[in-house]
């Protein structure tokens, strides 16, 4: 369906996203995702033209519509999380995979716990495991110097990638005592 050109002409539907309207071709969006298949067939009337998409920022919807037509998308550090959440919500699996690959390439000791937590919430298993392994390799210094107290305790499930409890307790002790010094 990428033979359609996204130019706003001959479009047969309008997606309303937070007051912004996007014209598109129904067939292109049907090919993109099962979400749109359900939206156009089960969740609406047969002659409906305007469809409201909740929970997605207009700038992200623009990226997703452009992807539907071009199979290209610009993923950046600034848009990756919003794009990934929207693609997951809209069941645009190709964009989910591209965003996860982008985050995998960005993994480092400074962001591994944030990416791990984010991936864990949304059940992106492969990204979660890679971030957990990075955290395992760098956990001592990360806990001792930068993990806020309230976000420390959810990391106990890192046991699944082999972080030993004694080492984790020692790191927690070091981290908790650093503020008292």
From TrEMBL:
The chain crosses the membrane at residues 49-69. Residues 11-77 form the BTB domain. It comes from the Eukaryota. SMART domains: BTB. InterPro entries: BTB/POZ_dom, SKP1/BTB/POZ_sf. The keyword Membrane applies. This is BTB domain-containing protein. It comes from Tachysurus vachellii.
């Amino acid at each position: 369906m990428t033979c359609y050109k996204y130019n706003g002409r001959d479009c047969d539907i309008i997606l309303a996203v937070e007051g912004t309207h996007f014209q598109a071709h129904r067939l292109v969006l049907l090919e993109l995702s099962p979400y749109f298949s359900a939206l156009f067939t089960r969740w609406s009337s047969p002659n409906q033209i305007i469809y409201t998409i909740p929970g997605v920022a207009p700038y992200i919807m623009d990226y997703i519509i452009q992807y539907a037509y071009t199979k290209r998308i610009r993923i950046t550090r600034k848009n990756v999380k919003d794009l990934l959440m929207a693609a997951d919500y809209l069941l645009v699996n190709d964009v989910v995979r591209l965003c996860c690959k982008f985050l995998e390439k960005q993994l480092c000791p400074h962001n591994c716990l944030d990416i791990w937590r984010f991936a864990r919430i949304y059940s992106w298993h492969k990204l979660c495991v890679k971030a957990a392994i990075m955290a395992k390799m760098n956990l001592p210094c990360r806990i001792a110097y930068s993990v806020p107290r309230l976000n420390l305790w959810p990391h106990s499930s890192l046991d699944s990638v082999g972080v030993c409890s004694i080492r984790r307790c020692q790191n927690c002790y070091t981290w908790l005592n650093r503020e008292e010094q």
